[in-house]
Each structure stands twice: as structure tokens, then as C-alpha cells.
Amino acid sequence: MPVSLAPPKPEDLLPVKGVMLGVAEAGVRKENRKDLLVMRLAEGASVVGVFTQNRFCAAPVILCREHLALERPVRALLVNTGNANAGTGEDGLARARRTCAELAAAIGCDRSQVLPFSTGVIMEPLPAERIVAALPRALAACREDNWLGAAEAIMTTDTVPKACSRRLNLGGKPVTVTGIAKGAGMIHPDMATMLAYVATDAAVSQAALQQMLTRAAARSFNRITVDGDTSTNDSFMLIATGAAGTNTITEERHPDYAALAGAVTEVAVWLAQAIIRDGEGATKFITVQVEGGKNEEECGKVAFAVAHSPLVKTAFFASDPNLGRLLCAIGYAGIPDLDAGRVQLHLGDVHVVKDGGRNPAYREEDGQRVMKQSEITVRVELGRGSAQTTVWTCDLSHDYVSINADYRS
Amino acid sequence: MPVSLAPPKPEDLLPVKGVMLGVAEAGVRKENRKDLLVMRLAEGASVVGVFTQNRFCAAPVILCREHLALERPVRALLVNTGNANAGTGEDGLARARRTCAELAAAIGCDRSQVLPFSTGVIMEPLPAERIVAALPRALAACREDNWLGAAEAIMTTDTVPKACSRRLNLGGKPVTVTGIAKGAGMIHPDMATMLAYVATDAAVSQAALQQMLTRAAARSFNRITVDGDTSTNDSFMLIATGAAGTNTITEERHPDYAALAGAVTEVAVWLAQAIIRDGEGATKFITVQVEGGKNEEECGKVAFAVAHSPLVKTAFFASDPNLGRLLCAIGYAGIPDLDAGRVQLHLGDVHVVKDGGRNPAYREEDGQRVMKQSEITVRVELGRGSAQTTVWTCDLSHDYVSINADYRS
Fold it and tell me: Which of A90, A203, A304, B214 would staple A242 via disulfide (CB 3.0–4.6 Å)?
């Protein structure tokens, strides 16, 4: 049961001019399952991506990097579920190349203008022939008004499709930003991968788009954790088709940059949070806010120490205001000169730790009240400076163990 | 149910000349429970310790460091369970000081010659008066032949007392090394603390003993993980009474150094492994051996990435030879220039990953056979050099979540 996350309504998802989406059942791993997505891009679209840092990155990630490095206009993205094509060596690369080549031939472009993505089991050969056989059906089904279908086609262990849209005006012209994602790199390295695709019909140069992507990733997908695991296939792609007819944003100082970057980040944050809300076994959505650090990096260390701690996470699952576990995680986060006596801790609106010790005014029943909520904010004040950061995570429940212990059976 | 760990037999635990152990029921948190240990040391004993790096370290840890820094001969160690005296500020220090002062008065030494240790709930005031009231009973019970009683008195959520002895000859004279420990820093930050005490009747200078301790800690307690959490109270103490009448070991080049250091490390490794075998909810004991690294540090990164991964740990719990999860953890361990194509992975005697991909000769039933065992060795070969390291961990089971979710109730 995801935490406060309903499937998107079709009417809430706005088409992006210049992006057509087609879905098919290729039978990659199971029959009768939408497992193939083709995204066709209008000519002139800018495309940028960030990928997993895992050294065992998958064949499609390697190809994406290769193709993007050639700087030819990207004309299509090809996504399959059911098989991650990771840990598959040269053979995996050949199979991924073949699917790109076939799609390129069908739409009349070079193989390098197609970007491949895979998610699913690791170390099994990609059934490229089944993907190729399904391509004509996916292409025939391509239309602009199909973001919900696309969000469904990339799901693996997700229980809810994840998609959202934002509308804004740039120079008096309406512009759309729509994105889809599936969970989750840090959750399922088997069904390996967090995949996210965000598209806008605004016109943005490749360089400016890359900046927007980096900023959005830093504030969204790089701020979430379920269990600290990072997958072999994680990819976050940002597409700008220019089909809305706006002025091209070429740099950060462009008058439209901030507004568009803001909308892109907003969509990315929404998707990242949706991944956590639908995290394996999640019963609580937890925001960890760290303030008063010397810099953002040390705030992040503390926030992730709290968010990764299995003991903190089981305490949230149990709705137990177990303050020691929170303090303990802050203490081992890796700030060697942290002055414990300056640390404040708030659980929701309750001031639980004052100057590094239990707040004399704190009453257990107040902590209990907050812990029972399904959305909880932990606020840590370090008392060292003015930097801050926010990380989102979920609790650690029996279902997490069940899902991961029984996953392949 | 601990993994292959039976309570020690009293006759297997050898007294250490110059160390007397007395146990009492102080009622620190619960009645009718041995919760107080006094270790009295003969005059002239050397004592060294390593302590938690957690910034929220407990009052007794602060006092231990203070007292040791004064370099006066330590005459007694005082350990209580039921209360960690952590997150308790100045008041906590005052209470710990008082217990030391009372014990010092009773045995006729300075307060700074007593070292205090506490383990139990965090952020609650230490009932110093109850500890003080029980001191005469603990002192009256002091005897050399009481290591099992001592091991029992320091247990918190441990299910089995942990203690072992080794015997060796130094210069023709019999020498004993006996140690006790309780789990575990990285398991219970509430019942906060891994505590370990190892004593020998060999004669060792403070400086040489410190070297032995550092080396033993690096190969034992710093090589284990249950869930990555590090407590506020972790302490590992090494005592050399000199009562066996051997020549004093003053430096690493001393002819007896290597033999004694080896025995001390052996005892520490045994105790560290016992903590893992008795880890919360553990059903498997897992050895992660990483070889072929450029240096020990990068081997440790890979070993701990594997040992910390909740996905790897649930796969062990489920006896599922889920290779992708292992590869994935190796890939994100933080070696940026790791050549995935050179990585080999063995599960027990089965070669599962060859040159970074699935070994063509690997059969799932072979992996399955190994995964069903209760003691499993994962061997990773990085193909980068000749450094190596070993880490021990356990699986992540339903019981881990239950124990930690229900802990305070």
C-alpha cells in the first residue's frame, strides 16, 4: 500500500508537443503484460541524461552514454521491462544495439539516434528478437496522449503508475512539463532500476538542458533512499522538444530559465517522492530535514545517516519515538567536530532533543502522537552554520523483508 | 537462535591471574537480574581501550578517556547494564563520576583509577544510588574464577553469554588470554553498545599493549556489521596484569610480542564473530572475503558494501542465490576505476561470476546448495592487486524487524 499516492487521473497528464508514446506487449519475461515503450521525439528535440554510477552498469546505460556522446539528434527512446540486460557483457551490448538498429530502421534514422533502457532481472540474456517483433505494434500505437500508458508500461514491482504534469507560461506561450518514473534504483537492483523521463515542449539548448537536469537530479532522485542500494540501470532523462514555439533557452541567465528549471525540478521531486511513497513495504513517508550545517555536504551526511539507519526505520515502522536511535545516527554520520551539545531535534512540531540531550519539556506521548502519523518530518538543527538539505525515505517493515526475500520465487 | 554458538562451558574459561570478577543484582532497570560487574585488577596491570567514534558518546566513555589520559594505574572496571548513561549531559557525567568515586573509596584508590562502562537505554538518568548500593555485594563476590558470571552480567539482548580463552607459553611460562563481550554496537544503539574485555596475565607495557589492541580491533570488532549502526558506548578494553611472571613485552620487536598479539587477536575475532552469530534475528553467518584489491581500504569498501546491503542480506535470509544483488553492491562500493570485467565471485566453492558476467558453467542449483548452508563464504576477486580483507555479517530476517520494532514495548 503506497503512502498517500493514488494513480494519476488521465486528464491530469498533459501531452507534450513533439513527444509520441507507444506501448506494446513484447513478452520479454511474462506474457500479457505491457513491457515495451517507444518514445518518438520530433526533429530538433534536445535530450540529456544522468545515469547510475554503479561500476556494473548495464549494457543499455553504456549504449546511452555512447550514443549521447556522438551528439546526433535523438529521435527515439526504447524502454523494456522484465530484463535489465545487466551483467551480460559483450553479448548484452550486441543485443541492445540490435534493438536500437531495428527501431532506427523503422523510423528512418541512425542507430545512434535511439537510446535504449532496460529494467528487470539481472544477468539473463535480453530476448532482443521478442522486442524487435513487438516494435511495429508499439510504433503503430504511438500518440501524444499516452503518458499514463507509458507510466504503466515501465512499472516493475511498482504498485502505482507514477506520472505528473505542470503547466507554465514562457513569453506568453503555454508550455508543458510532463514526467513519468518507476521505482527504484535504491530499492530493486533486480528489477534493477529507477527510470525517469521528463519532457517539455519548451525550446532549450543541450547545454542549458544539461544544467537543468543536474540541478533537478540533485534535488530529487539524489535525495531519496529506501535501503541505500544503487542499481545498475538508473537513468533520468530530460527532453525538450521546442514544439511549443518558445524562444530557445540557451543559458542560465535567459529570462525563462528559472521558471522552466523550477517546473522541471518540481516534476522530478514529485516523481522522486512518489517512488518513496511506493517503496517496498513502506507504511510511512519520512522527510529528514537537516539545517544549520557548515555546508550542504555535511547536512546530506547527517540526513542520509538518519534515513539509512535500519534501527531508525524500524522505529518509524513501530511508531516508537525512539530518540536514542535518531541521536545515535546523527552522531555517527561522519562530522568529526560535531558539537553534540548544540544539536536540536524536532519530530514534527515536537522539540525532543534540546542542546544535545532530552528536552526537559518533552513528553513521550507527544512523540508518540507524531510517530503515529503516516507522514513525518524529522528536523535536525546542527548549530554550525546556515546550510541545509532535505532527504526523503520510508520506514523498514516486515513487508520489505518479505518482498525481498520472496522476490524471485 | 544464534548461528552455531553455544554457551561456553565453565571449564573452558580460564582465570587470568590478577583479575577478579564480582557480579551483583543492582536493579538498574529490572529486578532479579545480574546487571553489575566489578573487575578488580592487581597492582601494576596495564590497561588500554578503544572507544566509539560516535559524536554522541556516552558519559562513561568520556570518563574512561579522561581517566586513561591521566596515566594512573587502573585498579578496577565497573560495568552496568540496563542504562547506557548516554545523551545525559553534565548530569550523566556527575552520576558516572559518583559510581567511580564510591568504588575507588571501597578499594582504596583514586576515582581516576576506576573505569566506568554502561549499556542499556539511552537518554534516561543513571540510577547511580542503586549501583552504589550494590557495590559491596559485587566486591564481596569477586574471584578469579568468574568469567562466565561476568559474561552473563554484561548481556542485554544477547541470547548467549560470549567468552573464550586461549593458552600459550611465553619464555617457558604458561600465559592465559580470556575475553568476554556483549553485542553489539552495530546492532543495538538502545541497549547501546558493544562491550568487550580481554585480559592476559602476561606482562606488557602500556605502549605495546596499545599496539596489540589497535591491531586486534582492526581485525575483529571493526570487521563486523549487523546493520551498519554504530553505538554511543562501544568499548573494547585490553588488560595485561603481568601476574604470570613473564618478561615484560615493551615493543613489537620483543620475541614474545607476536605470539601474544596473535592470541589476543584470536580471542577478539572469536568474540566479534560470536556477536554476529548472536546478531538480532540472524539465521546465517556470512563471511565476506575480498581479494585482489589495490589496498586494504578498497577491499574493505567492497566487503562492507556487500555486508551492509539489505538486499543482499534478505537474499541470504531467503537462501536465494540472487547474484545480481551481490554484483550490484560491488559496483556501488565506491571504487571509481573498478574494471567490472575482471571481477570474479565465488559463493562457497561455486564460481558464479566470471570476468564480470555470469559464469557459463554456473548452475542455479549449485548456488542454491550453498545458500542453504547456515555458514556461507562470499569471495570477491577484484583483479587489481594483492590486498585483501575479511568482514563478517549475518542475514536480515523478519525477526530483525520484529526485535527492533517491538524493542521498547
Answer: A203
Size of interface A-B (CB pairs under 8 A): 211
CA-atom Rg of chain B in angstroms? 22
**Is residue B185 predicted with pLDDT exceeding 50?**
no
Task: Say yes or no: B353 contacts chain A, CB-CB below 8 A.
Answer: yes
> CB–CB of A192 and B231 under 8 A?
no
From the CA atom positions of chain A, what is the Rg in Å? Answer: 22
Query: Whole-angstrom Cα distance, residue B152 to residue B158?
Result: 9
Of B44, B64, B41, B51, the closest CA to residue B206 belongs to: B44
Query: Is there a contact between A55 and B397 if contact means CB atoms under 8 Å apart?
Result: no
Predicted structure pTM score: 0.81
Rounded to a whole number of angstroms, the distance from the CA of B322 to the nearest CA of chain A is: 8
**H/E element holding B261?**
helix B257-277
Could you tell me where the DSSP H helices lie in A122-256?
128-140, 147-153, 206-219
ipTM: 0.71
d(CA A354, CA B304): 34
Q: Does B314 touch chain A (CB under 8 A)?
A: yes
Cβ contact, residue pair A324, B401, below 8 Å? no
Cis peptide leading into A184, omega within 30 of 0?
yes
Q: Report all structural domains of chain A as residue ranges with CATH numbers, in order of start.
A: 10-277 (3.60.70.12), 285-405 (3.10.20.340)
Q: Is residue A237 packed enough to be buried (19+ CB in 10 Å), middle (13-18) or exposed (0-12)?
A: buried
CB contact residues (below 8 A), chain A span 203-232, against chain B: 227-232
Distance from CA of A78 to the nearest CA of B (A): 23
| Residue among A84, A229, A357 minimizing CB distance to B87 | A357
Tens digits of residue pLDDT in B81-115: 999 998 888 899 999 999 999 999 999 999 999 99
Q: Is A94 on the interface with B (CB under 8 A)?
A: no
Closest Cβ opposite residue A408 in set B89, B320, B330: B320
pLDDT digits (tens, 9 = 90+) for A321-370: 777 888 888 988 889 899 989 999 999 999 999 998 888 899 989 999 99
Per DSSP, the three-state class of B401 is helix
Contact yes or no for A310 and B89 at CB 8 A? no
Which residues from A are below 8 Å from B227, CB to CB? 309-311
- In B138-284, at which residue ranges do the beta strands (DSSP E only) sit? 162-170, 173-182, 195-200, 224-225, 235-240
DSSP string, B202-245: S-B-HHHHHHHHHHHHHHTGGGEESSS---SS-EEEEEE--TT-
